[in-house]
Write a structure and sequence with these properties.
550 residues, Rossmann fold, Formyltetrahydrofolate synthetase, domain 3, twelve-stranded mixed beta sheet, four-stranded mixed beta sheet, 18 helices, 35% helix, globular
């Protein structure tokens, strides 16, 4: 059966029952039908449970199943008698209708209702899009009405939750009206909007409003920043986001509670769900399982250096997902031959996994376990080889059969996670200190986490960095936007055997979110669709059933 068929053939609990299971009263949830709800309040006096972060080796076009593993681990923890909860990101319509797909897991390790979650869900991303574009409208209206703030350069972009490369660069203000000033503009995908980052880092609605007011929308004729609060936009934007601040409660196919909230991409933003949802999960359960986007060099680094620092939390255990296919791919095997036994490529590809493990364990000082996501094409000798090689380095591992068996296929890793979480040692540290210069922080990420020999800064970028520091924002954390497929900024350089450089193309101050985006290599904040978009295979039948959605 397909993922959607498995989901449709599973009887879900009423969401009110799921809420009661984690101690949430009926009056503290807002229902969106029978199987979705928003949580408006929890008891914050409870002690925090343990936090399990799921990350991965460098991803491939083949998919590694990180969300599927996260779901299976939460289900597995329940099966061994532990109170667990999931804290995951919301899917973006861009990948859903594009190439990557949704974000609800697969097989017997899914969150549901998967069609709703992968499509409009509760409207959070729509609210972000509306708030973003309201600010755009207020900027242009201010200029039209006389431009009292002397705005000379607008840096704020519009956004849409779709992959539409045609909108990367556009011209606006072409109506011919005398008072309208035409200019070059552009769109980002909604997941790349600063408002998405703000929603996911805000601690409450007042913090959200403050952060929204601190968004820099452009610069005046004196080259001074103009903020959203200068336009009195933050109040209306907060109103649009009022309900979006509340985490969404759904369930796995095995009825484990799941908080799904926020969806920034890790290759262009900080790649993790909301602080509000993660903190909520830690109050509601013994173990909160959350994930960070793409490989550990992106999602996990930003989770730790940005989110953990901001929220004053840290993972007790980090799970690094690997697959036989991904290991062979990073060892030089082609997609066409990936299912064939290839011990040479497999052994070579282990270097990618080792680097991620060394970063998690050696750089951040965190406990780590490798989850080997088993596929039916994997050979027993391949699986045995990977486990033996990891054991030689004293790296714990577990074979997880989540797609086929759900939580039952994650019992071994669940037990090992509990054991690791009880062995916590105080070796945790960030990669950089906030008091360091921007260049020092960027260099540390590039050299320590990526393994680069140097970082190159064009003169224009160097001047921008200097300007940001002069403005008093140099102490903010760094969010590097680069390809997810390689430690380098070159998506084709998978093995990174030769010394490589990181090329900084631009820096963007996100004063509202509270970090600085560093664009490295050829990275787009508005993706495009592939040759055959997933949208071509999605349809609805005469009975109203959605088909083709995974």
């Amino acid at each position: 059966m397909t993922d959607i068929e498995i989901a449709k053939n599973t009887e879900l609990k009423k969401i009110t029952e799921v809420a009661k299971d984690i101690g949430i009263a009926d009056e503290d949830i807002e229902l969106y039908g029978n199987y979705k709800a928003k949580i408006s309040k929890v008891d914050t006096s409870k002690n925090d449970g343990k936090l399990i972060l799921v990350t991965a080796m460098s991803p491939t076009p083949l998919g590694e199943g990180k969300t599927t593993i996260s779901i299976a681990i939460a289900d597995g923890l329940r099966k061994i008698g532990k109170k667990s909860i999931l804290a995951l990101r919301e899917p973006s319509l861009g990948p859903v209708f594009g190439m990557k797909g949704g974000a609800t897991g697969g097989g017997h390790a899914q969150i549901a209702p998967m069609e709703d979650i992968n499509l409009h869900f509760t409207g959070d991303i729509h609210a972000i899009t509306s708030a973003n574009n309201l600010l755009s409208a207020m900027i242009d209206n201010h200029i039209y009405q006389g431009n009292k703030l002397d705005i000379e350069k607008v840096t704020w972009k519009r956004c849409i939750d779709l992959n539409d490369r045609q909108l990367r660069k556009i011209s606006t203000g072409l109506s011919g009206e005398s008072k309208i000033v035409s200019r070059e503009d552009g769109f980002d995908i909604s997941a790349a909007s600063e408002i998405m980052a703000i929603l996911c880092l805000a601690t409450d609605i007042q913090d959200l409003k403050t952060r929204l007011g601190n968004i820099i929308v452009g610069y005046n004729k004196k080259a001074e920043p103009v903020f959203a609060k200068d336009l009195n936009a933050q109040g209306a934007m907060t109103v649009l986001l009022k309900d979006a601040t509340k985490p969404n409660l759904v369930q796995t196919l095995e009825h484990t509670p799941a908080l799904v909230h926020g969806g920034p991409f890790a290759n262009i933003a900080h790649g993790c769900n909301s602080v509000i949802a993660t903190r909520m999960g830690m109050k509601l359960a013994e173990y909160t399982v959350t994930e960070a986007g793409f490989g550990a060099d992106l999602g996990a680094e930003k989770f730790i250096d940005i989110k953990c620092r901001d929220a004053n939390i840290k993972p007790n255990v980090v799970v690094c997902v690997a697959t036989i296919k991904a290991l062979k791919y990073h060892g030089g095997a082609s997609k066409e031959n990936i299912k064939e036994e290839d011990m040479i490529s497999l052994e070579k590809g282990m270097n990618n996994l080792y680097k991620h493990i060394d970063n998690i364990r050696g750089r951040f000082g965190l406990n780590v376990i490798v989850a080997i996501n088993k596929y039916n094409t994997d050979k027993e000798n391949e699986l045995e080889f990977v486990q033996n090689e990891l054991a030689k380095r004293e790296i714990p591992s577990s074979i997880v059969e989540s797609w086929e068996k759900g939580g039952e296929g994650a019992l071994d890793i669940a037990n090992k996670i509990v054991e690791l979480a009880d062995q916590e040692e105080d070796k945790f540290e960030y990669i950089y200190d906030l008091d360091e210069t921007m260049v020092e922080k960027i260099n540390k990420i590039a050299m320590k986490i990526y393994g680069a020999k140097a970082v190159l800064y064009p003169e224009e970028v160097a001047r921008k960095i200097e300007k940001i520091e002069e403005m008093g924002y140099g102490k903010l954390p760094i969010c590097i936007a680069k390809t997810q497929y390689s430690f380098s900024d070159d998506a084709k350089n998978l093995e990174c055997e030769e010394p490589f450089e990181i090329h900084v193309k631009d820096v963007e101050l996100k004063a509202g979110a509270g970090f600085i985006v560093v664009l490295a290599g050829n990275i787009m904040t508005m993706p495009g669709l592939p040759v055959v978009p997933a949208a071509e295979n999605i349809d609805i039948d005469e009975a109203g059933n959605i088909v083709g959605l995974f």
